[in-house]
Amino acid sequence: MTFAPRTRRPLPWLMLAVGVLAQAAGTVVVATPAFLIPLLHVERGLPLDQAGLLATAPNLGLVLTLIAWGGAADRWGERNVLALGLAIAALATLGATLVDGLVPLGAMLVLAGAGTASVNAASGRVVVGWFPPERRGLAMGIRQSCQPLGVAAAAIVVPALVAGGDIAPALVFGAILVGVSAVLCLLVIIDPPRPARADAPAHHTANPYRRDGLLWRIHAVSVLLVVPQYALSTFGLVWLQVDQGWDPLAAGILVAVAQFLGALGRIGVGWLSDRVGSRLRPLRWVALAGIAALLLTAAAGGLHLPIAVAVTYVLASCIAVADNGLAFTSVAEIAGPFWSGRALGAQNTGQFLGAALVGPGLGALITLVGYPIAFALVALAPAVATPLIPKDAAVARLRDTREASAR
Question: Looking at residue 375, which CATH number applies to its domain?
């Protein structure tokens, strides 16, 4: 059934707003288990590595389905994929309130994460399809700001909802958000136009992964840079409470402030990429800044300096999320209209696979060496990523080749 005729005038900024809400709602669902760690670990005695594993359950669902959702968006359109995936996420999150035991709960969270993966794979293509290149960085930065905004919302709301010792209210909250987003996507989103495959030059329709190594390198960089992002967002709250002795409310507010400022940072970096005419140079700057910020955070935590802990944590969190929109836009532009759905799915698959390993891996590392050394070791990820970032000249050559083939 079609609720929104495809002939009506597209409203890119309205579609962007709905996409931001949908992605933020999906992020709330995915991030909620991380903010259950203090309840599960401190009050119920669940080991930190097991609590971290439960927190990564939605990311596992994302990893398993992102490329499939991307392929579905390439074939059947973004609007249908968004609505269907968010509806699945809503039902699975509600289902998580009805099961007993960590294994059934984890299984429902995996399914919920699989549903939210539709937004990661499809809504980016809506932005690339409806916004011109000179505004695309800003638009994608706004779109990508929804991830830290979703984490910020979860950081504020989830601890309050589970204060009574029951996790169900937090899950119901997430289910309502994604359910409403599914309806809005069905009503507002219009699939961006695609050129007819039969009329497109062969260079536009060819598999971009066989053409050169640009996409592979950006995927690898993004996997590495997602490590500090999820290290800080997953373990920030429990680090502040357990290791630094912060009040739960103060810790939640700091995490929320860090994520909110990170959302603004993504928008600012996207705008900067439009101004300098490059996605990759700002990406390199972000990676280098991330190394220093993580080391400063580790040092502040090791010395137990509250003000320094607050400042460095916020700074490191802002930097850790700033790269995402730059890499996402680069992938869509390099892949082209016939491969962008699958390429964006592959991009997020790598990122969430890395994120899925952060929970149990870093949880075990913290248990062995403590928070300061663990956070310092996380700085190795952006250090390895920096030399892998492609040069602008390589992307310029690809653009010139496409323009020549189009003529």
Answer: 1.20.1250.20
Identify the CA nearest to 111 among candidates 142, 83, 87, 147.
87
Q: 248 lies in a domain?
A: yes
> 348 to each of 119, 179, 295, 386, how far by Cα in Å?
11, 22, 26, 19
List, in sequence order, the alpha helices (H) in 370-391.
371-378, 380-385
pLDDT digits (tens, 9 = 90+) for 199-219: 555 555 667 777 777 888 999
- Residue 232's nearest CA partner among 248, 267, 265, 256 is 256
SS3 36: helix
Structure token digits, residue 7: 């002939």
Both tokens of 96, joined, read 């998580």
**246-262: average pLDDT:** 85
In angstroms, the CA 158 to CA 171 distance is 9
In 3D, which of 192, 187, 184, 193 has the Cα closest to residue 5? 187
- Residues of the chain with pLDDT > 90, as a percent, come to 25
Print the domain residue range for 354.
Answer: 12-193+207-406
How does residue 1 score in pLDDT terms, banded at 50, 70 and 90?
Answer: very low
